[in-house]
Amino acid sequence: MRIRSSSLEAVVAALEPGMTVFVPGMSGESRAFFDALAAAPDKAEDVRFLGVHFPGINKNDYAGLHPRARLRGYFTQPHLRAPIRDGRVEIIPTDYAGALKDLARQRIDLAIAQVSPPDHNGMMSLGISHDFLPAIWQRAKRRIAHINPAMPTTKGSSPIHSDDCDLLCEETSPLIEFDGGRPSADLLRLGHHVAELVRDGDTLQFGIGKIQSAILRALSGHRHLRVWSGMVCADVLDLLDSGVIAGDAKIEAGVALGDALFYERLGHDHSFFFRPVSETHDVRRIAAIPNFVALNAALEVDLFGQVNSEAVDGCLVAGVGGMPAFTQGAQLSPGGRSVICLTATAAKGRISRIVPQLGPGSLVALPRHAADTVVTEYGIARLEGLGADARAERLMEIAAPEFVAELAARWRDIRERL
């Protein structure tokens, strides 16, 4: 194959109505490609963009480029609400495994990969984001590599060779960064409760955000931990530097999210190894890891143990992501554990996140049989093996005290109807 160098502006200029364009999400999103699109918005007319774009991280509005631009995605975001109502945006209600299958069914006319500069053999790394692109790369009719000198070369299972690209476009562009913020005192207490459930030698899965940051801070006294996760954030560096995690490839993940210093370290720290979703979220692989601990956040949990992680008062704010795969894998893992984490209240203490029963404005991300352990800043509720009344009692014990009487009264009413 004869490789041609080009520019992202030229790639945009060649777009045609009716095309489907895959644009990576998470920290693999090419800001430079979106900027080229924004500079020529008419080229987005009747183009369908496809990708797994995560709330709070991928903020570029592809559907907003043109009144006739379209998008197929898997997470709702505020800027998508209007085009969803207009029918120009499809949000597929599925988890990461389902998104992988859905992508395999889509016709992809053009795919963008943001990669590190090629080595002397022409190999390019996907750097800090290996998640979904390997699943669609060989199926795309045209494959465009955005060579970004800011992208570190990382160890991973899915490098790309320059010969496998139709165009190489080199442009330095800032990478997507993420700052989860400092956890509150309540979250730090929650983190210490979660740390009680983690044993030396466990393999952990966690997401990103303040809850996960609080948990990682609480693990400083542990040893011989490993990570197998869809995402990894800069907070994990404290565990590396203190010896809690030690050794090559002890942190295996699909995506890294953090700042420029974190990304720079990933280019030379052999503790990290990156894998695509087809590997990180494979329930069979997860189940084969002994003592696998899945740590996932939720919006609310009801007294049956049903978990909502998607909607608030009927408004979609996220998706289930990798929670179902990691939960199932943890339950099948020898010595594995699944832990759901949430603060006991929301809206500055005005609303209980432990609720009597998930209502019309909520969505079930995990059914009641899948919630083994729930943790708030008030303690740990171990639910496995308990009947309905005992589960409700344990969950009320970790609710905010000011809501317990109301929860108990509502449970008595619910119980009468069972």
Question: Could you please describe the fold and organization of this structure?
Answer:
There is one protein chain. 28% of the residues lie in helices and 22% in strands. The chain has helices at residues 8-13, 31-39, 81-86, 96-105, 133-136, 185-197, 210-217, 236-241, 260-266, 277-280, 283-287, 323-332, 388-397, 401-417; strands at 4-6, 20-22, 48-50, 70-73, 89-91, 110-115, 123-124, 142-147, 160-161, 167-170, 203-206, 226-233, 251-257, 272-274, 292-297, 300-302, 307-308, 311-312, 315-316, 337-341, 345-346, 351-352, 354-355, 373-376, 379-382. The strands form six sheets. An eight-stranded parallel β-sheet has the order 1-10-8-6-2-3-4-5. Strands 14-13-12-11-15-20-24-25 form an eight-stranded mixed β-sheet, with helices on both faces. Strands 17-16-23 form a three-stranded mixed β-sheet, with helices on one face. Helix 6 (185-197) packs across helix 7 (210-217) and helix 13 runs antiparallel to helix 14 (401-417). The termini are far apart.
List the helices and strands and how they pair.
Blueprint: E1 4-6, H1 8-13, E2 20-22, H2 31-39, E3 48-50, E4 70-73, H3 81-86, E5 89-91, H4 96-105, E6 110-115, E7 123-124, H5 133-136, E8 142-147, E9 160-161, E10 167-170, H6 185-197, E11 203-206, H7 210-217, E12 226-233, H8 236-241, E13 251-257, H9 260-266, E14 272-274, H10 277-280, H11 283-287, E15 292-297, E16 300-302, E17 307-308, E18 311-312, E19 315-316, H12 323-332, E20 337-341, E21 345-346, E22 351-352, E23 354-355, E24 373-376, E25 379-382, H13 388-397, H14 401-417
Helix pairs in contact: 6-7, 13-14
